[in-house]
Specification:
It contains 23 helices and 20 strands. By secondary structure, the protein is α+β, with helices and mostly antiparallel strands. The strands form 4 sheets. The protein has a 6-stranded antiparallel beta sheet with strand order 4-5-1-11-10-12, covered by helices on one side. Strands 6-7-8-9-13-14 form a 6-stranded antiparallel beta sheet. Strands 17-16-15-18-19 form a 5-stranded parallel beta sheet. Helix 7 runs parallel beside helix 20. The chain is globular and about 70 Å long. The protein starts with a strand and ends in a 24-residue tail after the last strand.
């Protein structure tokens, strides 16, 4: 993990800080373990972890005015200096408008501003500390700093309603540690904190001005090209030198066995439109995107394209064939990684501790095997579906803007998939109800559904679309929670609905799309930590601020068309000079291993999940573990069961066990007790009350 941490102290508290540290419980000075001091007292800032030299830049105007940018940022030093001068007047948005994925921290006197991103892939956390406020880009270091206990209310909301911001609000798995929402910045003034948004929010009273589809797609192309170019223009990094040959192994096998990526730049090539677009853009832009000269092949211009061939799941033959056709490009070097039963979800449940829980923990082993064959800088298509596709709730947005004619094509596609003539009326009726339903009523309806345990939803593509036509809906794991946990989440939702100034200030489709993107970005962050390969960086340009902004400007009428994502990305490639795509490029794949039961056979995944299930009522009374174990055994035996929520439950249990079994802390100079959840899990019926 890589993160930054700092704090802002009060004027009186500044005197208690010594040598860029803070006094702990017993008067000792605390420092982050493995840290690099960026600037010192009275408001110090550290970079922690294996940051590359070019990923940490600090520009100083004078002793009290400076900016630190951590991550991949396409701005020059002069642009950062101009951004610092502009930020002195209080402007924030320009700090998030440079190409790349990064976190910007600005200090102007005793005022500190930390900018989060729009997607939520680079969050910012804060907590009261030493009379002021400590902040970080990871929650666990702050939890260690204040010895935080688990927030069972947050964990229950994460299972019951993960895509509903009103349920999780600004909480984290740790009591007292808060998260700023995507599109916001944390502003600290001598210890006092304020959370301010830097993005304009579409009005509910006035329809958005009509956008030109061609110009909007051109903006997406420009943003994607700049995002890829920012990575290509960064200095190349060579992983640790290979210590020597191993009998019976070639260089690539040796690197993979030792967990070392290939030098240079590579990309996923699944055959889908997102990864294919990034691979072709990276290979087509000038700047020798492949291996470093003098290392590997020495060619310097070939991009390593990695395709994962899942032998245990059929139905992806067409995608693999398209990936092979794309890899025929002479600027690509194609590598195919095969995976069997031992790489299915639940087959390997070992891994490192992540900052937060996430359902991707059960998939981490298969992704780690794929990434081990990748490059030191590896492009992925994560987030493309969330930023480009139309959430079904956007149909209600079209009705609110009196654009009924644009509903014809998506509704006709659903009717064709279902084969029923009644689909059109059902979808139109659901969209009309959502357009007329206030936000508060939608949240209260979800609270009532959780209280009454009403989780039945129609199946199929049409059923999923109808269920998504709402302000809020239960998560897939909600059916496995105890009545006490569901009641706690229901109370949280009712409190959010009764809060003054309730309402997102957005249309339901736009609101739901942003919430789904934030949840997906958080899970990608967990996956990146769980499947991390030493000396490797994963790049997800679709989650960059400028790409997200450009995609949000796409007209809704363009989004809701069937196959819109593939059409947009095809236009992007054509505008960048890439043509001759294989037939069927962009066609959706219906094969997935996400919903498969825990595998039997050599992996023994179902047995591992069964042994890993908590006894009694589970951690804090969240789940009835006996029911979960019974469902796992039944699913492994082949019985048809709703398994979507099991990944969330198993991932949460894995994360809790790793958290409690860890040794040490994120801080040095602290006594042994100074770490998160010092007393362990206390399974009691009243445990949820502490998270309220």
């Amino acid at each position: 993990m890589r993160w930054l941490v700092g704090w802002s102290s009060t004027a009186s508290g500044a005197a208690t800080l010594g040598s860029a540290g803070a006094l702990g419980h017993d008067g000792e000075t605390v420092h982050p373990v493995g840290s690099q001091l960026l600037w010192g007292d009275p408001d110090p800032l550290w970079a922690v972890g294996d940051w590359r030299p070019d990923e940490v830049r600090v520009i100083r105007a004078d002793a009290q005015n400076r900016i630190a940018v951590l991550g991949t940022c396409g701005a020059t030093d002069e642009e950062l200096r101009l951004g610092l001068f502009t930020a002195r007047g209080g402007a924030l948005r320009h700090l998030t408008a440079w190409p790349g994925s990064y976190t910007a921290v600005v200090q102007v006197g005793r005022r500190i501003t930390v900018c989060g991103d729009l997607a939520g892939a680079r969050p910012v956390f804060h907590t009261p500390w030493a009379g002021g406020t400590a902040y970080a880009t990871a929650a666990l270091p702050l939890a260690d700093l204040i010895e935080a206990n688990l927030d069972y209310g947050h964990l229950a909301a994460l299972l019951a309603a993960p895509d509903v911001p009103a349920a999780v609000h600004d909480s984290t798995p740790y009591e007292g540690v808060r998260r700023i929402p995507p599109g916001h910045a944390l502003i600290l003034r001598t210890g006092a904190r304020e959370v301010a948004g830097y993005e304009q929010v579409a009005s509910l009273a006035v329809a958005a001005p009509a956008a030109d589809p061609d110009r909007a797609v051109d903006a997406v192309r420009d943003a994607l090209v700049e995002a890829v170019r920012a990575r290509l223009s960064a200095p190349r990094h060579v992983p640790d030198i290979d210590p020597g040959p191993v009998p019976g192994m070639g260089p690539a096998e040796r690197r993979a066995a030792r967990g070392m990526p290939v030098p240079g730049i590579g990309a996923d090539l699944s055959g889908g439109p997102a990864s294919g677009t990034l691979a072709l853009l990276a290979a087509g832009l000038p700047g020798m995107p492949g291996t470093v000269l003098g290392h590997g092949t020495g060619a310097g211009e070939r991009l390593l394209a990695v395709t994962f061939n899942d032998l245990a799941v059929g139905g992806r033959e067409a995608e693999l064939e398209r990936a092979g056709s794309l890899a025929a490009n002479p600027r690509l070097h194609h590598v195919v990684v095969t995976g069997g039963e031992d790489m299915l979800p639940y087959a390997d449940l070992e891994g490192p501790l992540t900052d937060e829980p996430g359902p991707s923990l059960v998939h981490a082993a298969r992704h780690r095997a794929r990434l081990a064959a990748g490059s030191a800088d590896h492009f992925t298509g994560y987030g493309a579906r969330q930023v480009l596709d139309a959430h079904p709730a956007r149909l209600a947005d079209l009705l609110m803007d009196r654009k009924r004619r644009h509903l014809v094509r998506p509704v006709a596609a659903l009717a064709k998939a279902d084969g029923s003539v009644m689909v059109s009326a059902r979808v139109y009726g659901a969209a009309r109800r959502l357009a007329r339903t206030p936000y508060r009523a939608g949240v209260e309806s979800l609270a009532e559904r959780l209280m009454r345990r009403r989780f039945d939803e129609p199946g199929g593509a049409v059923g999923a679309s109808l269920a998504a036509l709402s302000w809020a809906r239960p998560g897939p794991a909600a059916r496995w929670l105890t009545g006490e946990a569901l009641a706690e989440v229901s109370v949280l939702l009712q409190g959010a609905a009764n809060r003054s100034g309730v309402g997102p200030g957005q249309r339901p489709g736009d609101y739901r799309a942003r919430a789904v993107l934030a949840r997906h970005a958080a899970d990608i962050r967990v996956l990146e930590q769980a499947a991390e390969i030493r000396s490797q960086r994963l790049h997800a340009p679709f989650l960059d601020n400028q790409v997200v902004r450009a995609c949000r400007e796409l007209p809704e009428a363009l989004r809701v068309r069937p196959g819109a994502r593939a059409t947009i990305l095809r236009t992007v490639l054509e505008g960048a000079g890439v043509a001759d795509l294989p037939p069927g490029w962009g066609a959706p794949s219906h094969a997935s291993s996400a919903g498969r039961p825990p595998p039997r056979g050599r992996g023994g995944g179902h047995a591992r999940v069964d042994r890993g299930a908590p006894p009694g009522r589970g951690p804090g009374g969240l789940v009835e573990a006996r029911v979960v174990r019974k469902a796992v055994r039944a699913a492994a035996a082949g019985e048809p069961l709703p398994l979507d929520g099991l990944a969330d439950l198993v991932s949460l249990e894995l994360w809790l066990r790793r958290l409690l079994s860890r040794r040490g802390t994120c801080w040095t100079g602290t006594p042994a007790r100074a770490r998160a959840v010092p007393a362990g899990i206390r399974p009691m019926r009243g445990a949820l009350a502490s998270g309220a």
